[in-house]
Amino acid sequence: MKHQNTYKNVFLWLVALVAINLLAANFFERIDLTRDQRYTLSPAAMEIVSDADSPIVIEVFLEGKFPSEFRRLRNETRQMLEEFSAYNSNIKFTFTNPLEESKDAEATAQEFYQQGMPPARVSVQENGKSSEALVFPWAVARLGDKEVQIPLLKNKLGATDEERVSSSVQQLEYAIANALNKLVYPRKKKVAVMRGNGELPDAQIASFIKTLQEYYFMAPFTLDSAAVNPQKTLQQLKGYDLIIEAKPTEAFTENEKYILDQYTMNGGKSLWLTEAVAMETDSLLNPSGRAFALPRDLNLGDFFFSYGIRINPVLINDIYSAPIILASGEGNNTRFNPYPWFYSPLTTSPNDHPIINNIEAVKFEYANQIDTLQNKLEKTILLSSSPQTRVEGTPREISLEMVSQEPDMASYKDGEQPLAVLLEGEFTSVYKNRIKPFEIKNPLDQSEETKMLVISDGDVIKNEVQRGKPLELGLERYTGNTYGNKEFLLNAVNYMLDDSGLIDIRSKEINIAFLDDQRTADEREKWQVINIILPLIILGLFAFGFNYFRKKKYLK
Fold first, then answer.
1. Cα(3)–Cα(441) distance, integer angstroms
2. 341 and 229 together in one domain
3. I want to staple 206 with a disulfide (CB 3.0 to 4.6 A). Which of 89, 470, 483, 547 is the partner?
4. Domain check: are 11 and 99 in the same one?
């Protein structure tokens, strides 16, 4: 009987184990006990992961010896990838050390730089001593012959390593999900880069357009035929999901405006980078070092006014700004030095909208003020100048002599000025209750739900060109500073065209706790003693108590 009960218990345990394994194989569930739910994937990310039906291998280069902050970034990256892999076994990842097989760190760094993955040089504080380390905060996701780079470290001007890592951890889920999105889903939507009204040349917008090509089909589009066959031009433009107007300098005709208006009425989305003042830094590079900033009329006043905004022909003079780089000396002795230049405002973000959440400051040049007007459209001010701003009317003389003049702080009292405004909702036609420039079938006076982003500076999308080759958008080649222009514009386009809600992941807030380096160095010996001696004391007390009670028990 006793043996029968034993066999019965063993059998029941085996049945229970088999049942548990069957349940575990068919029902998947993970429990995230963190306060900020950092390891719980967003619905948009889970949808992308579930659609990955072929193996995707992610190679992470965050391996090696580096500061504690970057070890935290490595660990957080590993845990996030484990979360993705847990939901789909097709997601595989490895961690490699780029310097493990190479003794020449600089050659490896140069190789990564040429591939568009610049390494980061960080300061290491250990035992009160400072040194420099090379970190490769990048990953590469591969699906077949397709490859996508994943930036793991976000740059922030003036930020400490802890702040940079904290900001980077905030965006880990978005960075990984965004890369998978580009690998899993084929491009479907089409973006038109507008031509024919004096927009920036191809070389000066190449950096951003190249990035957009990873997400969407891109093509140039001209309104030149609006004068002879506007109906056909409008019909062709409707085939695009979004248009980009990159710093037009020639006035729009009524036919062109009506085409753009009806494109919006049919649900088309648009990104406008336009300005109401004509002024370029190159105009100052003359013997006098002076130029005039003049109002520029693009015949778009009524166009934007009907939609609820107005771009004023004034200049933003902002204390919080990027420097201007001026050359001194001749020949081999030429030096490029930065000087304060208050006409290049570095914008702040008055809210936490997904487009601008956790991005670097965006650099403007000779930006204009935007007024928002009352109507039924939802308006979100994405970027604005700093509180220490002065609004200057035009015409106005601009001189390089300003770099040596102390600013009159008392005059910077105009406060934050809107520089980028997002419009969302149902737009009312500019030509409602007006004579139409030409006849079309089924003209619309009210649009369906759509979006428009207006930026009061065309140079936000402009990249520098060196020896005929475009540089990275937002990179200042002489100072090495990287501004958030590219990320801002890419987020904006993704937001306006994103049907999956992937951009909303950027709003996820994660709190990262770091050790105090100075306190760690000061109290190192104390905590070493505590960690070594205290366990021994506890173990000794336990042994003494165990022996004491054991003797007492058996003496009875």
1. 91
2. yes
3. 470
4. no
- Cis omega (within 30 of 0) on the bond before 387? no
Query: Mean pLDDT throughout 189-202?
Result: 96
- Do residue 356 and residue 256 come from a single domain? yes
pLDDT digits (tens, 9 = 90+) for 232-290: 999 999 999 999 999 999 999 999 999 999 999 999 999 999 999 999 999 998 889 99
Question: What pLDDT sits at residue 266?
Answer: 96
Whole-number Cα distances in Å, 352 to 87, 270, 361, 458, 509: 29, 22, 14, 24, 11
Do 197 and 176 lie in one domain? The reply is no
The predicted pLDDT at position 514 comes to 46
| Amino acid identity, position 403 | V
- Per-position DSSP letters for 56-113, written without gaps between them: EEEEE---SS--HHHHHHHHHHHHHHHHHHHH-TTEEEEE--TTSS-S-HHHHHHHHH
Whether residue 230 is found in the same domain as residue 126? no
**AA letter at 221:** F
Q: Which residues contact 279 (CB under 8 A, 6 or more apart)?
A: 291, 292, 293, 294, 315, 343, 366, 398
Report the SS3 class of residue 460: helix
Among 100-104, 170-174, 267-271, 272-276, where is mean pLDDT lowest? 100-104
Query: Which of 217-221, 236-240, 407-411, 513-517 comes out lowest in average pLDDT?
Result: 513-517
> Are the beta carbons of 421 and 453 closer than 8 angstroms?
yes
Tell me the C-alpha distance between 384 and 318, whole Å: 10
Residue 154 has pLDDT above 70, yes or no: yes
CA distances from 285 to 192, 280, 327 (A): 34, 10, 11
Cβ–Cβ under 8 Å, residues 87 and 50: yes
Three-state DSSP class for residue 387 = coil
60, β-bridge pairs? 95, 139
Assess whether pLDDT exceeds 80 at residue 500.
no
- 82 with 23, same domain? no
pTM for the complete prediction?
0.80
Q: Where are the beta strands (DSSP E) in 249-393?
A: 269-273, 277-278, 290-295, 309-311, 314-318, 324-328, 335-339, 370-372, 378-384, 389-393
Contacts of 93 (CB under 8 A, 6+ apart): 57, 58, 59, 60, 78, 81, 85, 139
Quote the mean pLDDT of the chain.
85
Total count of domains within the chain:
3
Higher model confidence: residue 521 or residue 225? 225
The two three-digit tokens of residue 111, written as one number = 């190789």
Range of the domain at 76: 37-182
C-alpha closest to that of 172 among 152, 148, 147: 152
Question: In this structure, are residues 440 and 234 in contact, taking their beta carbons and an 8 Å threshold?
Answer: yes
**540 within some domain:** no
Burial of 469 (0-12, 13-18, 19+ CB in 10 A): exposed
> What are the tokens at 360?
């670097």
Euclidean distance between CA atoms 312 and 277, whole angstroms = 8
* 260 inside domain: yes
CB 298 within 8 A of CB 248: yes
